[in-house]
Amino acid sequence: MQLSRQAEALHREPPQRESMSREPVYRELADTLRSELNRYIAGEFLPAETQLAARFDVNRHTVRRAIDELVREGSLLRRQGKGTQVLGRPLVYPVAAESAYSQSLSAQGHGVEAILLQRRPCVATREEAGHLGLEEHAPLIELQTLRRLDGQPVSLIRHRYCASRSDLLADYKSGSVRQFLAAHGLPLTRTFSLIGARLPSREEASVLLMPRHLPALTVLTLSRDADGHPVEIAHSTSRSDRFQYQIVT
């Protein structure tokens, strides 16, 4: 497909003339690129801007503005030194008492990985202490995990437990934390979830390969053991362009 010479000329006009045009040429190109994204697998890269400019017979500035539109939408991600990467469509994660992240998404046919990034001691905030029935600043043990779906990073999770669980958690290396605990005689049930949104930190955006202007979904989750005792408080930060949370009652 070639964009019209007339549209390209209009794109070069001053703003007051462009506003009278049918559609700015970069938006025409953005519409075309958007319609072609389903031909790509998540994680693949678009052709270089010079190739796209030659294909559509436009200048690189027009291509760049079109790609910027799709980056703002969360459909594409610029990777410095690598190119423009196609992102996957949002996934539906059912939030229910017994649902487990890895199990739920594996059942939808996705390859799920959970990688341990860090294990460290910390102390309970006032909010965490209230949920876990501990004193403020009580010692905790934290596991920070990165979740990948089909090879793409999508969620950072901080799992926090009373420090008395440190010996048990010392054996955790990777995979579903919930399944690990169940296999060691500590099955958990989600009893409280609080969903929110905020802009990611620089570190979160870097690990999750997301633009910092794109909001991240946050979920605070409290899980209890079979006797109803609070065991885990988890803070997850996920790409909002990759997730839709479905509340199951």
UniProtKB/TrEMBL annotation:
Domain of life, source organism: Bacteria
Gene Ontology terms, MF aspect: DNA binding; DNA-binding transcription factor activity
UniProt key word Cytoplasm: no
Q: Cross-referenced InterPro entries, in alphabetical order?
A: Bact_HTH_transcr_reg, Chorismate_lyase_/UTRA_dom_sf, CP_lyase_PhnF, Tscrpt_reg_HTH_GntR, UTRA, WH-like_DNA-bd_sf, WH_DNA-bd_sf
Sorted alphabetically, the keyword list is: DNA-binding, Transcription, Transcription regulation
Q: Where is the composition biased (Basic and acidic residues)?
A: 8-24
Domain called HTH gntR-type: residue spans = 23-89
- Region annotated Disordered sits at 1-24
What is the protein name stated in its UniProt record?
Transcriptional regulator, GntR family
Classification of source organism:
Bacteria, Pseudomonadati, Pseudomonadota, Gammaproteobacteria, Pseudomonadales
